[in-house]
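Example record used in the benchmark description.
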Amino acid sequence: MLETVGVAAPEEQAYRALLMAPRCTVRELARQVGRSDDEVGRSVEQLEELGLLSRTTDRPARLVPARPDVAIDVLVARRRVELDRVQAEARTMLAELRTHERYRPENLVEVVVGQQAIAARFAQLLQGTRRELRVLDRPPYAARADESDTTVRGLLCDGVVVRGIYAPDSLEVPGAVDEAYSAADAGEMSRVHPQVPMKLAVFDGSAALLPLAVDQLVDSALVVHRCALLDALTEMFDLLWEQAVPVVSPAGETGLDARLMTLLAAGLKDDAIARQLNLSSRTVGRRVAELMELLGARTRFQAGVHAQRRHLLEDS
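Model output (structure tokens):
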């Protein structure tokens, strides 16, 4: 188990045995693990170098294991530094590529096939995101490629800005509205738009992931790296963001109206809104008419825009 932090199997065996019998000698430890004194002596030297044990000044010296949580945390931190150094070196290597090689088509666009491969590539891109994640959310959904809520929440905890625009269809999925409000409460900047043209995720403005087919199950996708196409996708997101209406958390009667306006702006019909808000369709229809008259709006989306401009809706 500890091989991932640089502890080989023989050394891990010796360390675990030492935890069960601290302050034993090399010879006593060798008997415990059933290996020769010389073999265990070499393992002890490795463990000492890794900071997993120390020796007393007794003759013969006795072995004192370091606390696992402290010592292994140090090894994990050391490995993180090494991985960060490798990532930085990869960026340096990219910069060293000749310009015409860097911008060859095969270096700008990847084709990823299969739901598992898409999910793995998405997770990899998320892990490398440090500043901002932009997402257009709409069906259809791959079986597991879209189950990334936990990872996205982790980005929010790390201070990454997450902006999401939901399509009407995505909010009609059972539980989707509650999840959208939960994400907004967690710090995601969430908005709705009646016309989201595709699924899209843009990672730090340096790469984007989008499906090859818009209205079919996601079983193939493109990863677009820095080029004019990525600039166009990012600009499209920003334009939709300016037009979209914020998702706000409901609180009391005013909060209910704000939630209703959010769903209106998303393009949901009265029956769908009634189901989401646990109200009757007649109550929703009456309140929608009242709000549209109050705001002087001709369309539902226009009502959402007017509500936003009057600060009835604000990003949470």
